[in-house]
Write a structure and sequence with these properties.
Length: 112
Amino acid sequence: MQSQFRLKENRDFRRVFRRGKSFATPRLVLYYCDNREGRVRIGFSISKKVGNAVVRNRVKRVMRAVFQSFLPELAELSVDLVVVCRKEAAAADYHELEQDVSKLLHKAKIVI
């Protein structure tokens, strides 16, 4: 996923957590909030509870790949997304996480 679509700064994460709405599955929690950037930005929050650095980085890589597949549908939106991964995400494969992301995006009415 390209750098322009990533949410990086702590103040942006805090704004999404404070002002945004959330939806959850057993593996993921999606927070979203409108922005003024004119494009979608996506950030990931993965706690040490998920696993060691190797596990957390694998989950992040898989999540970036999942959102890369959704990017054509999300590109014209002006929204910030933060995905919080739970412990169960470490044991999930690409297709399970893709289904969860799809379910969350539909619940939030971001993608129809």
